[in-house]
Every structure is written in C-alpha cells, then in structure tokens.
C-alpha cells in the first residue's frame, strides 16, 4: 500500500502476531471466533467503539454463530456495556488462558 503510494516502507513484524502464532501451534484457529482490538487509549475507544459495535452487529446478522472476543484496557462502563451487546469483553490478556483464547481466533479486526 505505502510503496504503491510512493512512500518508502518496510514491514518489520508484529510481536503480538508472533506470540499468538507460537501459542497456536497445532491447535489452529477456531472458525467463527474473532478478536476485535478497538484500541487502548480513551479517545481512541470513544471514537472506535460505536463504529465497531455497528460493524459487529451487521456481521452477527449474517453470521449469528460468530464468537467475538474484545480485549480492552480498563474502560468506562458505558463503552463496556456497548461492546458487551456484541461480544465477550475482557481485560487485555494478562494470563495464559486469555492469550490462549486470542490464539484460537480465526481473525482479528484491529
């Protein structure tokens, strides 16, 4: 994308992706399980959450079997309530089981 626009760039990797791939191992991804990472800063979340919730509602209308996992930092109760209408909200992964849950996701929306 950037090179096509005339910008010099290079991809150096993602520590999160690398960690999840290593944890996934032979277990693989679970179809219909998605992770949504709407951001970590309050202003980001306030902007992104309403859009994310609408997108997830539309996705769930087409795929009611979707299992949505939303790891977030500490957030306001209003934002948490909005996100809980479309998926399971949990604090950013801090223990092994949370990381394993994310590793099983088929796709992540960032």
What does this structure look like?
The chain is an alpha/beta fold. It is 43% helix and 20% strand. It has four helices and four strands. The protein has helices at 15-24, 42-62, 77-84, 96-103, and strands spanning 30-36, 67-72, 88-91, 105-109. Strands 3-2-1-4 form a four-stranded parallel beta sheet, with helices on both faces. Strand 2 (67-72), helix 3 and strand 3 form a beta-alpha-beta unit. Helix 1 (15-24) packs across helix 4 (96-103). The longest helix is centred in the middle third of the chain and has 21 residues, at 42-62. It is globular and about 40 Å long. The two termini are 17 Å apart. The mean pLDDT is 81.
* Count of individual beta strands: 4
The oligomeric status of these chains comes to: single chain
The rounded distance between the terminal residues' Cα atoms is 17 Å
Instruction: Please describe the biggest sheet, giving its number of strands, its sense, and whether it closes into a barrel.
Output: 4 strands, parallel
Quickly describe the structure.
The chain is of the alpha/beta class and 110 residues long.
Keywords:
single chain, 110 residues, alpha/beta, 4 helices, 43% helix, globular
Architecture blueprint of SSEs:
Elements: H1 15-24, E1 30-36, H2 42-62, E2 67-72, H3 77-84, E3 88-91, H4 96-103, E4 105-109
Parallel strand pairs: 1-2, 1-4, 2-3
Helix pairs in contact: 1-4
